[in-house]
Write a structure and sequence with these properties.
The complex is a heterodimer of chains A (545) and B (132). Chain A has 545 residues and is of the alpha/beta class. Chain A is 46% helix and 8% strand. In chain A, α3 packs parallel to α5 and α18 crosses α20. Classes of the chains: A alpha/beta (545), B alpha/beta (132). At the A-B interface, α16 of A face α1 of B.
Chain lengths: 545, 132
């Protein structure tokens, strides 16, 4: 029909490469023969119906525009809470709470390892009172926080949330929000060392399943795990690897949960995904549609789920941070706009756009507002939301969706042959794949195979770039204030009750109990985040120092 | 350019390592020997390795805003041990901070979007004793 993909020089003498980011050849024209055997009833279904290609819900954006999630978190819980109040008043209706690095590794703000890191990349949470401060003025039954946190720490933050709900008299069955709870969340974007340095991997997996068990039994509206494909994609792997590694990872956790005896027709209802929307527009749209179909087929046919709610893949999206440039940074707004549209055509449930200045530093209020406004223009001005899945039936989009499903499925089968994603992470296979992709990407940019406007094409002298205002970090000030707060907190508790609670953590760990209620009890006796982790490490006879 | 020994390390809790892994490959391709120390190092661990491995330069990389604190600590430890080799910094580093790092004694600062040939040329120039 048309010449296959590859490098050719067209008439304007600009060399173009006719393939997707993942290397799938792109033809000049697509027609009916690109989708021979296409059966809309079987391959698409209706929105909200198996196999969910057209979207996870009937009505989609006509019923409800996606959640404009805002990523927020810096300094103390009190400062973050103030910022959330400001953003809520400006139209953001969901929040991803980012956590600082010491907290995300289970250390208190006054731990020596926290020096210079307190409040920098997110909010510091060391005590039950910190979580209560984060919710000041809001109820966990009304405002949804998604905590970007993985086990072991997510067991403690889950226990904190449950304690806050209890204190406010909110019924557990009404609590909304998300515990990211993905055991490999740091791994996705860093080596295995990120998840094994400060806590044993076996313990991390046990707490992940403890959380799923506790949430599925007591907090039915809380999302128990968000499989983080985003960080993984940010390393530079392509869209096919992104789909396969992310789904492979979720399916492996599902198998572990099933081994614990949890019901495949119950717990996957509140599972969801956090995915990247990158710059290759149609490939990303096809990826989202293909992942939804593949998930539905796998959950139904391989896991044997009979509850349709367990077939439905729901996902939030962040635009790709690794497509941002430091050079001519305002161009990043255009990139984020294209990526947001790919997420919308792909049927995302919630979207967060990177701010244009993220290649230079942490986002400011002004750049965050621009990112939100970009979404609002798409949602309320462009009209692309007004009919569901408008690209369905397109020769190209359906053919690319089929191809993505086939490629992702093939790679998933390979991962299964290797013993599943957890085994692939443990034995270093995933890390080798990631490192190869990183180096390949840099070479593609160096030799111009991949164009980055402002970096390897269309550059300007840096002096022509208008200056950008940068969010200032006050790590030392935050660290000192938090350390003083923690000294007061520890002085103001009953030492006997505190040490009994610490002993109960160790005992429950050894007895194999679900840790969430035990941690709730400990937090109420003013055990801190760092202390709870210390007790859990001790119970495993494990130390890193 | 003669083959040099270059130590690369991530410091503190930041785990973003795409940049440093890529730079390690660039420098190896350019003929240098690269020792990569992995994540979560403190200044003392980096300096100890610099001495044991007798390196010609050290590179540290940051994405999460800890560059000023950590670079200061490393430079202090190096001064205390009287080690005088060039220190390179890479990552998401605002222009003001990059200028401040240079003033503190950092040899060069590489921000995102620097092409491999430029990284290698700037490192080599510095290792050949030319001040940037």
């Amino acid at each position: 029909m048309s010449p296959p993909g590859g490098r050719i020089a067209p008439r304007d003498h600009e060399e173009q490469i006719f393939e997707t980011g993942a290397g799938i050849p792109i033809d000049e024209l697509y027609g009916p023969d690109a989708i021979t055997g296409f059966d809309p009833g079987r391959d698409l279904g209706l929105p909200g119906e198996y196999p969910y290609t057209r979207g996870p819900y009937a009505g989609m954006y006509r019923s409800r525009i996606w959640t404009r999630r805002f990523q927020v978190g810096f300094g103390s819980p009190e400062e973050t809470n103030e910022r959330i109040k400001y953003l809520a008043a400006n139209g953001a209706n969901g929040f991803v709470i980012t956590i600082d690095l010491p907290t995300s590794y289970g250390f208190d703000s006054d731990d020596p390892l926290a020096d210079g890191e307190v409040g920098v990349t997110g909010v510091a949470i060391s005590t039950l009172e910190d979580m209560a401060a984060l919710y000041a003025g809001f109820s966990p039954s009304q405002l949804s926080y998604a905590l970007s946190i993985r086990p072991p720490v997510s067991s403690v933050t889950l226990a904190m949330l449950a304690c806050v709900a209890k204190r406010l008299g909110v019924d557990f069955k009404d609590v909304i929000g998300t515990q990211q709870n993905d055991p490999f969340y740091q791994m996705s974007g860093g080596p295995l060392q990120t998840i094994t340095q400060f806590f044993p991997l076996e313990g991390t997996l046990r707490l992940c399943i403890d959380n799923i068990e506790y949430i599925s039994q007591h907090l039915p509206r809380l999302n128990w795990m968000v499989t983080n494909g985003y960080n993984l994609r940010e390393t530079g792997v392509n869209a096919i690897q992104d789909g396969a590694f992310t789904l492979g990872h979720a399916f492996n956790i599902f198998r572990l949960a099933r081994q614990r005896g949890l019901d495949i027709d119950v717990f996957p209802r509140r599972a969801s995904f956090f995915l990247s929307a990158s710059i290759d527009f149609f490939e990303e749209i096809a990826k989202f549609r293909a992942m939804r179909r593949l998930y539905a087929r796998t959950m139904k046919n391989e896991f044997g789920a009979s509850n349709p709610e367990c077939w439905r893949l729901r996902f939030s999206v962040q635009s790709a941070g690794n497509t941002l440039t430091t050079q001519q940074p305002r161009v990043n707004m255009v990139r984020a706009g294209i990526e947001a549209m790919a997420a919308v055509f792909g049927g995302a449930q919630s979207i967060h756009l990177c701010s244009y200045d993220e290649g230079l530093g942490l986002p400011t209020e002004e750049s965050s507002r621009m990112a939100l406004r970009t979404q609002q223009v798409i949602a309320y001005e462009s009209g692309i939301t007004k009919t569901i899945d408008p690209l369905a039936g397109s020769y190209y989009v359906e053919s690319l969706t089929n191809r993505m499903e086939q490629e992702i499925g093939g790679m998933l089968a390979d991962i299964d042959r290797r013993g599943g994603m957890v085994a692939c992470i443990r034995d270093g296979w995933l890390e080798a794949e990631i490192n190869a992709a990183r180096i390949r990407n840099q070479r593609d940019i160096d030799d111009g195979k991949r164009v980055l406007v402002g970096v390897n094409r269309f550059q300007v002298e840096s002096s022509e770039d208008p200056p950008i205002h940068i969010h200032k970090i006050r790590a030392d000030e935050w660290g000192e204030r938090r350390a003083a707060m923690l000294r007061r907190y520890r002085a103001d508790r009953d030492p006997g009750r505190w040490s009994d609670a610490m002993a109960r953590i160790e005992g429950a760990w050894r007895d194999g109990d679900n840790m969430v209620p035990v941690l709730m009890d400990a937090l109420e006796h003013r055990v801190t985040m760092g202390e709870a982790h210390k007790a859990m490490r001790k119970a495993q006879h494990w130390s890193f120092r | 350019m003669a083959r040099k020994r270059i130590l690369l390390a991530k410091m503190g809790l930041d785990c973003h390592d795409t940049g440093i892994i890529t730079v390690a490959a660039m420098l190896r391709d350019a003929g240098h020997e690269v020792i990569y120390l992995g994540l979560h190092n403190n200044a003392e661990q980096v300096v100890k390795t610099m001495i044991e491995e007798d390196v010609d330069a050290v590179g540290i990389s940051f994405l999460s805003g800890q560059h000023m604190t950590q670079a200061r600590r490393l430079l202090e430890r190096m001064r205390a041990r009287d080690i005088r080799v060039p220190v390179f910094c890479g990552g998401v580093i605002p222009a003001d901070d990059a200028a401040e790092l240079r003033a503190l004694g950092v040899a060069d600062v590489f921000t995102p979007g620097t092409l491999s040939r430029d990284v290698v040329a700037r490192v080599d120039r510095r290792l050949a004793g030319v001040t940037a």
